[in-house]
Specification:
This protein is of the alpha/beta class. It has a domain of 228 residues: NAD(P)-binding Rossmann-like Domain (Rossmann fold, 3-Layer(aba) Sandwich), CATH 3.40.50.720. It contains nine helices and 13 strands. The strands form four sheets. It has a seven-stranded parallel sheet with strand order 3-2-1-4-5-6-11, with helices on both faces. A two-stranded parallel sheet has the order 7-10. A two-stranded parallel sheet has the order 8-13. Helix 1 links the parallel strand 1 and strand 2. Helix 5 crosses helix 7, helix 5 packs across helix 9 and helix 7 crosses helix 9.
């Protein structure tokens, strides 16, 4: 597809996946007009100590498009988007912390605001690609399949509701393409400012580089996740714009790997002789296995993951080193 001379809105564009989308379009389609809408981080934190917003200006250094600082919960802020005619909307803005149990703020931020994004898409006749999540499956058995959802936390439920709302909206507004992407465990550059909610690949990498033994839950050789590198996630977003069919799709590799595999690969990559330290898992609701069923994603979107865990860690290693000393105050 040619996105040159198209106007592209990326909500949450200063965050992890959003900022990677920003630079993908800027690099490959320099004549595109990119608009970032993000509330950016401040010092506000949830009761669990995690930041309320992960958007950071450092993720956008070198960006040449428009930036609008705004909150998707604010009608006044959203009205600032009325001056544009969007061709594509990539909706990444959300509270994405699975350990936040304040149901009201999650539902307001993730669900209520989604109605406004849908209306914006309809008004502009713009393709809408939005971030859903593997959290919609909760503790369901692998492989996780569309239609077998069982969310176990407010975040997963909010994304499940977004999917239901999107499907109904697409059925009554057939001229608008609406695609939801259920991301599994994404890792890669520009996730640093997610702090404790960043991938285990980044967190374990930093532990090793600080000469601290990588710490894992006991039995981690049997705790598996479907890790997917950011480049494949960007690929899925682009392919979603090419399909002619609205829907919800899993975005993973379908090849789950254990946390022990991750630690071993990082130890090898950084040439470390440290040994893994194990401790008791404090979570009673912990999911022990995720594996995306991507058969529908392959069929409808033509999606094919290209980056193995080994290759992804090798591609990511320099960035893990670069971000080692970034602190909460940066």
């Amino acid at each position: 597809m040619n996105f040159n001379n198209k106007t592209i809105l990326i909500t949450g564009g200063a965050g992890f996946i959003g900022s990677n989308l920003v630079f993908y379009f800027q690099e490959h389609f320099p004549e595109s007009h990119i608009v970032v809408f993000d509330c950016f981080r401040n010092n506000n934190r949830f009761t669990n100590g995690n930041l309320q917003s992960f958007g950071h200006f450092n993720n956008l250094i070198g960006f040449k498009g428009d930036v609008i600082c705004g909150n998707i919960n604010s009608k006044d802020d959203l009205r600032k988007l009325q001056n544009y005619k969007f061709d594509y909307i990539f909706h990444q803005a959300a509270i994405s912390d699975t350990r936040i149990y304040d149901q009201e703020i999650i539902m307001q931020t993730n669900v209520n605001s989604f109605y406004d994004i849908l209306e914006l898409s309809n008004k502009n006749n713009a393709v809408l690609v939005y971030a859903s999540s593997a959290a919609t499956y909760g503790n369901s058995t692998s492989p996780q399949e569309i239609g077998k959802e069982n969310p176990q936390n407010p975040y997963g439920f909010s994304k499940y509701m977004m999917d239901q709302i999107a499907c109904r909206y697409a059925n009554t507004h057939k001229h608008v393409l609406i695609v939801g992407l259920r991301f599994f465990n994404v890792f890669g550059p520009r996730e640093t400012y997610k702090e404790k909610t960043s991938s285990m690949i980044l967190q374990l990498g930093h532990q090793i580089l600080k000469n601290n033994p990588p710490k894992l839950f006991k039995n981690s050789e049997n705790i598996l996740r479907d890790f997917i590198y950011i480049e494949d996630v960007i690929q899925a977003n682009i392919l979603a714009c090419e399909t002619q069919k609205s829907g919800v799709y899993n975005v993973g590799t379908a090849l789950p790997r254990s946390f022990k595999d991750v630690a071993d690969l990082l130890l090898k990559e950084f040439n470390s002789s440290l040994s893994i330290e194990y401790f008791k898992n404090p979570y009673s609701d912990y999911q022990n296995h995720t594996q995306a069923d991507i058969s529908l994603t392959q069929k409808d979107l033509g999606f094919k993951p290209n980056v193995t865990l080994e290759k992804g860690i090798k591609l990511y290693s320099k960035e893990i080193i670069r971000t080692l000393n970034i602190t909460n105050n940066d």
